[in-house]
Amino acid sequence: QQQVKQSPQSLIVQKGGISIINCAYENTAFDYFPWYQQFPGKGPALLIAIRPDVSEKKEGRFTISFNKSAKQFSLHIMDSQPGDSATYFCAASKGSTLGRLYFGRGTQLTVWP
Amino acid sequence: NAGVTQTPKFRILKIGQSMTLQCTQDMNHNYMYWYRQDPGMGLKLIYYSVGAGITDKGEVPNGYNVSRSTTEDFPLRLELAAPSQTSVYFCASRTPAGAQETQYFGPGTRLLVL
Are residues B42 and A106, on separate chains, in Cβ contact within 8 Å? Predict the structure, then answer.
């Protein structure tokens, strides 16, 4: 049973465009929602994270939008660049589970120059 | 700081063989994790540890064992390898809980069981 559902599976965006990846969860006990970026042959690396007490968090070109009532959160990449081409994973955890992360299945992003 | 290091990078095992995947971190993190990544499936937690001498099962622990004798090391043991264990294995360690908590991942070990 997938605790975090992620879409789309793959995404192709032109350079300069906006990339949007969506995630949904069911467990209302989740209180930490990170996004990880993974390049081929490498381990995932934390990109940006949010907690449910805010509806949006922005770091440079990356923004998380969080909708607590809909149990959804999304990653927006503004001005997408070819160097952003990677696989992106959303995840969720709850404070009682000692940092255990539940990952979405990933989105492979390709940014065309 | 080397961060999280894993060895080997790649290994081929025959069915029924055993091996240990090594993981070391130099950030003095108490929390460490083992994940496996299968194509199109995201990462699944195998085992985790909250400190030396303390380990617990994750979502997919069957066929694996772990130990944690020191803060730095968290090896993963595969006994009687099966083709279903063909995967990429990632070790991670985590900063203390809080607003900036972060899991740092190693580069992974690619395992092929034939």
Answer: yes
